[in-house]
Amino acid sequence: MNYRFMRLMVLFDLPMQTDKDRREYSRFRHFLLENGFIMMQKSVYTKLVVNNVSSRALKDRVRSHLPPEGLVELLEITENQFGRIEYLVGEGQKTVLDTMDRLVEL
């Protein structure tokens, strides 16, 4: 098996008008966190995957846990592309995790 590190990004915009909407949002967000995704922004989560096989399996898991309403997008990029993200930080936040080092979460 060839190991080519990739990042799977989940971008979503879910309705938050009703209690049911908020429950679905919370359920989806907790699913992402329980499956090793890390929040980059409020509705942008990312996870490191080792190859195309694991990426496809993870995409299938995300598809099987979609909320009934709203928009969810999946974006797969290489680790090099992810490392070239340019962070533009304004007044609100002074610190950003900006490194090519691998993050190991236990």
UniProtKB/TrEMBL annotation:
InterPro entries in alphabetical order: CRISPR_associated_Cas2, Virulence_VapD/CRISPR_Cas2
CC cofactor: Mg(2+)
Gene Ontology biological process terms, A to Z: defense response to virus; maintenance of CRISPR repeat elements
Major enzyme class: hydrolase
Assembly description: Homodimer, forms a heterotetramer with a Cas1 homodimer.
Record-stated family: Belongs to the CRISPR-associated endoribonuclease Cas2 protein family.
Name of the protein this chain belongs to: CRISPR-associated endoribonuclease Cas2
Organism annotation: Candidatus Stercoripulliclostridium merdipullorum
Lineage, broadest ranks: Bacteria, Bacillati, Bacillota, Clostridia, Eubacteriales
